[in-house]
Amino acid sequence: MTRELKKRDLHAALTELFAAPPPNERFAAALGAHLRSRAHQLGREWVTKPQEGTWREGFKGFGVKHRSRVFLSGACLLLAIMVASTVVVVGPGQVWAALQQLIGFVPGIGFVNLRETALLAQPTAQIRDGITLVVDEVVAERDQTQLHYHIEGVPSDLAWHMGPEYTGEEEAWLITEEGYRYPVGSVSMSENEGYLGFPALPKGIFLVTLELPRLPLARPGALPQNWRIPLRLEPGMARVAAEKLPTIVYTDAALVRSGVRISIPVVAIGKEVTAVTLVGEVLNRKWSMFKLDSANPVTGEYETYLTDDQGRHYRRSYPAAVPAPMEPQEIRPGERLTQLTETFTFQPLTADLEEVTLHIPAVDVKVPTEVSFEVDIGENPQVGDVFPLDIPLKVADFNVRFERGEIQRDQEGRILLRLTTAPVEPQGDKQLSQLEASAPGSCCLVETGFEVETQRLSVSFELRNDDGSLSTGPQTVFINHAVVTLLGPFELIWPIPSAR
After folding, report:
1. How big is the chain by its Cα radius of gyration, in Å?
2. Which of 20, 138, 264, 333 is the most exposed place for a label (fewest CB within 10 A)?
3. How many domains, the chain?
């Protein structure tokens, strides 16, 4: 979202709002709260991953994907206050029609100023040697350009770049017709899709070429190289005219349970997708929000889905033109993430319904811990060594006992120390599901896991000193944080306006 909105645009929208029929105070309060919550984050740009470090450092561990997001400007805060405080407020459909000119919702991207934004006219694909590269969306704003892509047809035996020699640097450019080249500045990638962040394009540029020396994360020579894909952009308002954008419904659906508050401030209902924005807030001062759609580690239920009043199910959906939303927030060292906002996409709703329910199997919070213990692996550890342990601990109020240690070699040839606990018993509506640990005598934490079948936790460390030699002898393990899963299901219900 750009940081400024033209005064004449704001004036025009408010004129339409205040000339409208009688009030709907509940909708006004919900809309005001939503805009205020976004405006409070003004100036915080969460960029996935600048071109530094390694892919492994950015994405190992929990697989959480981030991407850059700039939130609403101060003008929206002014608008929120005026809408929430005045009694002359119209219904959801009319308010959205007036506000859409200012803060359009682009599926998979979020809220943008459509008057000052260019968007990809349509998804664009190129096929080479059976590999398809699809550019799903381009959002060219005043201060940045975001591009989402995905890749199809990669054979399973062609491994992506996950070796230690990978530097984490990716090369990509957007090139204008005049030949000006804009290099990639931030990346957010998994093996088959990702986001690329570029500098802002000059105003009025609607034809650019994406140039990739090789596909992101691809092993050199494994896949076709030197890609060039022409892209045609269009003014953001063209989507409004073509009615490509979804209807926005603001809701007051919320519940408080297990020490967290979960709410749905806004839902985007489109012909191809339904996007639900979920906000989670911890009520325990020691906790941090971690994940809003976690699997239930006790029952094994993992699917987040919608149902309607007719009993129909709507599963998660990731259409090419509406990529799976990525988490916009990033926690800095020493900070607690007390509130987390995520948007989830589902199959499109049918027309003949009055009420929708969101079902979430579980929610994760992170709890700080100060627990340590020592494991002696001997002076000559060998792959295959197994040794019993009996180390009882208290972790986030759960009784944990490490009962087994094993020296393993993983697929990348690294020698690991794997430590496994005895089954951990749930406590009421909570279960300890993950340990964040460190071992200064070893290289790094490689894996942390939870087995639903046995209710056992495990952590694995690479046994490597700074000089590359194998770690030996006593190893001190520190458990820094624990992830506690709040067992669901969590269910939130909201009505659907009769006219969408």
Report:
1. 25
2. 333
3. 4
